[in-house]
Amino acid sequence: xxxxxxxxxxxxxxxxxxxxxxxxxxxxxxxxxxxxxxxxxxxxxxxxxxxxxxxxxxxxxxxxxxxxxxxxxxxxxxxxxxxxxxxxxxxxxxxxxxxxxxxxxxxxxxxxxxxxxxxxxxxxxxxxxxxxxxxxxxxxxxxxxxxxxxxxxxxxxxxxxxxxxxxxxxxxxxxxxxxxxxxxxxxxxxxxxxxxxxxxxxxxxxxxxxxxxxxxxxxxxxxxxxxxxxxxxxxxxxxxxxxxxxxxxxxxxxxxxxxxxxxxxxxxxxxxxxxxxxxxxxxxxxxxxxxxxxxxxxxxxxxxxxxxxxxxxxxxxxxxxxxxxx
Length: 326
Ligand SMILES: [Zn+2]
Hints:
The protein is an alpha+beta fold. It has helices spanning about 5-10, 35-55, 70-75, 75-80, 95-105, 115-125, 165-175, 230, 250-255, 260-280, and strands at about 15-20, 30-35, 60, 65-70, 80-85, 95, 140-145, 145-150, 155-160, 185-195, 210-215, 235-240, 245-250, 285-290, 300-310, 310-320. Strand 8 (about 145-150) and strand 9 (about 155-160) form a beta hairpin.
């Protein structure tokens, strides 16, 4: 089924539809799940809880969506959670620098690249505003977090841009009150918020969206002691380091050094098993190992789990080995 057919079905049968759609000032990037959509989402979460959370005895929390400024100072999001943007000097339209360059020239510049790289690509390829052919100002960073003011003093706080922040903040208490034994998996399903410049493709690039996230805390000296590794060592995963995805078992991925340790290999394995059960065709999936500039600022090694669709490869899960960043 192509994207237009899926979209038509979603709207006609009440899976999902734009938020505030009867009003002229409805903002892009906000969508509602209708009754059938909620049913589908609940089914997915049931499977997620059964196959990942209960399978490994992880803890589930439900944290607050608004969090204080200090959290995002500490996490690095205030400084780093930004997209490169370009503004037209004539009509003031704003675009994502990386997306605009990729659309026009097919040159892929990672979003975390130095801003000068975008400026160079724009001048070398003579890229102009797509609306009015005007010139662009220099590339700037735009922080994607939604700021909120708390109380009459409007104290600075933010809507969380990813669900993991409450997991990190709550870890000391959870570690103490629950069982205090590593490895410890903590999970959370909930809303996250990102002030995207160009939300599009309905549920694929949203400003308010659900994430189902798991953070596993482990002893860094025991990354190769994973009791249940045998359960998944023969699961076939497709890993892409350069041009084409290569099928290999989790064990082979580990032995070849593509996967940094047994711990990461184990989770790539159970994630693959989970998605297979959701109905995703695993032969059309890949774990794309991200390059130095492409991965998030907190990650030491990162794999994006992606599936091939009629509109190209889509990222479903970001698998980050964060080492001791948090
Ligand atoms: Zn313009």
